[in-house]
Here is the input.
Amino acid sequence: MVVIVSDAASLEFRTSRSATGGRNSGHGGSGGISSDLLISSTRLGRGILLNSRAVLFGQFVMFQTSLNDVVEIYDGPTQQNTLLSSLSGSHSGESLPLSSGNQVTVKFSTVGPETAKGFHFVYQAVPRTSSTQCSSVPEPRFGKRLGNDFAVGSMVQFECNPGYVLHGSTAIRCESVLDNMAQWNDTLPTCIVPCGGALTARRGTILSPGYPEPYDNNQNCVWKVSVPEGAGIQIQVVSFATEHNWDSLDFYDGSDNHAPRLGSYSAYKMLATRPPAKCAIRDTLV
Here is the structure.
């Protein structure tokens, strides 16, 4: 779901049903599984070929497992190497520390009958650091990097695409480490979609949580959009698909859901009927 807001209002987005039932049940391990993937410079087992002079940057675009189902990432070719991350449950935009070499191992273990949507992991090979140069910095997914100087003392900044917010540091600095390689002073940020919020700019974009991945069940997200007094708010829905009769998108002409309702939409109705853009009479919309 993508909503673009021009000179703005208040907006409510709901989902229902549990994660273990209905349309969002995923591919967790009924009965339990354990699998691992080696990401490496050589083809070993299910390895992926990467440049031996590179290190790895990894990020979970989406992550939702049962609390007993765990994803572990090791800094090397075996599970005896340092554990970089161990995750279960629900997370948004988790990024990993850069690996020390060109190999990491990803292990996914499940137990019991419960399932969830699973995870979406992406990785990128970046040049290895030196004593005067930090490793190159990938652009965050759904965002961009500002700055191309990776020498000691330099700084790079990050921005997110419309509708996303930055999770982590807005800027990181390359620092010299005594008797070691140069390194960044913080982990790389990620761009995520929040569930609700306040928008005050004259133009803005609202996305469903996790977009473009499917949203989770049992959410109640409210966005309050306010513009200078005297201005109206026009809304254009660019993309819309929800589960009919369960998940709805409601527009209210005021600061809360007690204000007059401009419309309530579910399933593909908005795309099928192509309604005209809604204009709020007031300068605040929910």
